[in-house]
Specification:
With 271 residues, the chain is of the alpha/beta class. The protein contains twelve helices and seven strands. The longest helix is centred in the last third of the chain and has 24 residues, at 244-267. The chain starts with a strand and ends with a helix. It is globular.
Length: 271
């Protein structure tokens, strides 16, 4: 365990952003001196420089809007006749070299490592709507299951993904919903129980929701999992993130989904 000292203003932000249960704490009944710093104890798995940086980031900019703010402004509107596509997600998206997988395509990467659907939802306007893409490719949810910003139920994750899709459709952006990649263990939070079963359940919901709303569903899960529900060893260096071979499996599936979304958009009434 390690300790972090926060002033009262920062403590208020923590209370808004991260459930105390996620930090291994329950609300204290011990009276605190006025204006005294509050000391919280983080779980052992959230130790080290990476998590300290994440803590600071969430305190000052929970959704990390600063990450792409300048790049979004530089990008400007798409050229007439181009089919801009935004790939939105976490580290699996951030690590995807779109220029190599989709050479010559006007595809924009807006992935941020470690993010959960609640964070991604908060930056959807800046990093997607304001870029005026034709299609958004959404791949998110695994970090929610890992507990990166606190415990999250499947219902909460599904609600955030539904909100992302609704925002896309409301702004005339075709939505591609992608399955969560398989894993049996989050190496940074190994205490998470049975992630494989929750991933399978979330993917079933994603597929059914996409069908109901006439969004496109891209199934990375089926061709990338082994018999145990893990990410195939030859497709990942760590059981969670794709290797170049893993992205090589994903790329044609994503392109097929994008093409289908564009066809559906073109065929929709009033287009």
């Amino acid at each position: 365990m390690h300790k972090r000292r926060l002033n009262p203003a920062s403590w208020a932000l923590v209370a808004l952003c991260i459930p105390l249960s996620a930090l291994g704490q329950t609300p204290s009944t011990t009276p605190q001196k006025k204006n005294a710093p509050v000391v919280i104890t983080a779980p052992a798995w959230q130790s080290g420089a990476y998590w300290a940086q994440m803590d600071q980031q969430m305190l000052v900019d929970f959704a990390n809007l600063e990450r792409y703010r300048a790049a979004d402004l530089r990008l400007g509107p798409p050229h007439a006749g181009t089919h801009r596509v935004v790939f939105l997600g976490d580290s699996i998206t951030e690590g995807w070299k779109l220029d190599k997988s989709f050479p010559g395509k006007p595809y924009v990467n807006r992935g941020i490592s470690g993010q959960t659907t609640s964070q991604i939802l908060l930056r959807f306007r800046q990093d997607v709507i304001d870029l005026h893409p034709r299609v958004v490719v959404i791949l998110a949810g695994t970090n929610d299951l890992a507990g990166n910003t606190g415990p999250a139920t499947l219902t909460q994750i599904e609600g955030n993904l539904e909100s992302l899709a609704q925002l896309g459709r409301a702004n005339h952006i075709a939505v591609v919903l992608c399955s969560v990649l398989p894993t049996v263990r989050y190496w940074w939070h190994p205490q998470v129980p049975n992630p494989a079963a929750r991933i399978a359940a979330l993917n079933r919901w994603l597929e059914a929701y996409a069908a109901k709303e006439h969004d496109v569903y891209v199934n990375y899960y089926a061709p990338m999992k082994d018999a145990t529900g893990a990410l195939k060893h030859d497709l990942s260096p760590d059981g969670v993130h794709p290797s170049p071979a893993g992205y090589a499996v994903m790329a044609p599936l994503a392109q097929t989904g994008i093409d289908r979304a564009l066809r559906q958009e073109h065929a929709s009434p009033g287009d």
